[in-house]
Give the backbone structure.
Amino acid sequence: MSPNVETVAGRVEAALAAKLVRADSLPDELAYEVLPADLVAVATVLRDHPDLRFEVLLDVAGVDYLEYGRSEWKTLSATGSGFSRGVNRGAAGGSSGAQPARRFAVVYQLLSISHNARLRLKTWCVDDEDPMIDSLVGVWAGANWFEREAFDLFGILFSGHPDLRRILTDYGFIGHPFRKDFPLSGNVEVRYDPAKGRVVYEPVSIEPRTLVPKVIRHDNRYSPALRDRGTPSKG
């Protein structure tokens, strides 16, 4: 842990010891978790406290932990279905890897220009069905479009946001494309219909399938000693 990170951590914990929990991070990073009820109050202190002065909100990101901790691919052994086949969760009937009320999180990346420091703040949405968290537009005005993006892509609602509507997807878009249970092929297709003279929406015609990544393994057939050996003569 660098001295500067530990110095900033000491200041943060002195000001907000009862409201923050230190989270795992890389050696040169500083991360904390905060309860949803304390989010606005903690953010205000981080911005205004003279020893902290996190004036800039760099980014707001939603996170979906629906299948967190579950293996996506079979990559260690050859099976009857071949190498590296995608796991068919529907057939397995497995349950979600997320804990109740711990599926959706919101992560804030903060910068203190005054103290040349960065901090990552994370909070969890209480409700998995309709995830909601307080808006931080009143603390950092730049949160406006970031929160709209998290709403559009993850379906996370930000209470108190002045204009919470989609920002990246189309007007008639169905669902939230960054959720882990959103179909890779989407829900509808869009095309221009010359006969109607307008864009029309239709059911998806692409057949859903599990994508299989290419995995390169050691194979003695491609060993340099064997590959470079000349072709044996038929004598």
Observations:
- The first strand starts at residue 20 and ends at 22.
- DSSP finds five helices and nine strands in the chain.
